[in-house]
Amino acid sequence: MEDIVTIYWKVSGSENSYTEQEATAADLAIAEAAKLLQNEETVAFPTETVYGLGADATSSAAVGRIFLAKGRPSDNPLIVHIASREQLAGLVAPQSLTSEHYQLMEAFWPGSLTIVLPVALGSISPLVTAGLSTVGIRIPDHPIALRLLREAGCPVAAPSANSSGRPSPTLASHVMEDLDGRIGGLVDGGATGVGVESTVIQIVESELHILRPGGVTLEQLQSVLPSTYIHESQQQSLLEKEAPRAPGMKYTHYAPQGHLHIVQGEDEEKVIAWIQRDIDAAKLRGMSTGILTFEEHSSKYQADCVIACGSLSQPETIAQELYASLRRFDEEGIRYIIAEACPEKGIGLAIMNRLLKAAGHRLIRV
Ligand code: AMP
Ligand code: MG
Predict the structure, then answer these.
(1) Near ion ligand 2, which residues have CB within 5 Å?
(2) Residues 45-83: pLDDT tens digits?
(3) Which domains does the chain possess?
(4) Does the C-beta of 77 come closer than 6 Å to ligand 1?
(5) Which residues of 123-143 are buried (b: 16+ CB within 10 A; e: fewer)?
(6) How many Å apart are CA 144 and CA 245, to the nearest integer?
(7) Is residue 212 in contact with ligand 1, taking CB distance under 6 Å?
(8) Ligand 2 centroid, distance to 72 Cα (angstroms)
(9) Could you report the per-residue pLDDT of 35-53, keeping only the tens digit for each?
(10) Is the CB of residue 196 below 6 angstroms from any atom belonging to ligand 1?
């Protein structure tokens, strides 16, 4: 595609403590960005999960630009972002909302929960749903995202604002790296909060199926709806047999350019020793080496690039730093990377889901 000029706005400070100058800059950024969206252009903006690349969900011309800019396969549907529940009325099939849906919205909206619902025919561009009869919707929990959605006044389709296949952006600089010259604008609101994408769910016969783990955890969902479980189609082996309900699951995602695999084991010392031996062997083969580990273990390793990605004692910090860490290996030109697994509970489930995809599901148990 031909290069376009990407307009960049910096919004600093936080909404309730803006200086006068910051408030004016924020007003201007939001007004101009909203106008771009109304003009069927693409705009990247911060959400509480990762940066999203937004476009008017009702316009195929606009949504088409998202797929083009990202190089995203057209069979991978987009999540629609709205500013308030009132907007649901025009988007989802009448009578499709149940008391369970309302319980979830009450508990988790605004927030990192995407609810898959039957789409109201003709309400949004068919490109958004990639031919499915359902649409994934959420209200993001970020002041800039919410203001932008309100001012734009339309439902906004927004996948993560990265080139397809690369780690999702948690900083505006990541968006620039991937999409400068390919999108209409970028609102820089600093680092995102959660660091991994939303949890995608669907209610089927009163059971809650997690189609993609994310910012809202299994445990949090079970506290609202005990009938929550992880849908089997997340398992790679099943993907070939049935059409996945969250088609994004079948693609390699989030991957650094070097070879990445994950090592998992009960015995910490054994895992560390195994990884170091494997890294030493790679070094002997002349490869540049990297280790993705946690603050607690980083001093135990030697490699060209050892990254402490958050702390095991605070797994939310691992999620926050995961994608920036994966990008760092590329910046350092690392060709051989081993990642330590983290426990698969709480946010750890989403972290391991993304790591596995980044590693093309190469997992070694020791
Ligand atoms: P992204 O916004 O790039 O994080 O990707 C959106 C994710 O939501 C992908 O995994 C999609 O497959 C999933 N998704 C979006 N819409 C639907 C839908 N209607 N049904 C199931 N999954 C969906
Ligand atoms: Mg994505």
Answers:
(1) 159-160
(2) 999 999 999 999 999 999 999 999 999 999 999 999 999
(3) 7-238 (3.90.870.10), 259-365 (3.40.50.11030)
(4) yes
(5) bbbebbbbebebbbbbbbbbb
(6) 30
(7) yes
(8) 9
(9) 999 999 999 999 999 999 9
(10) no
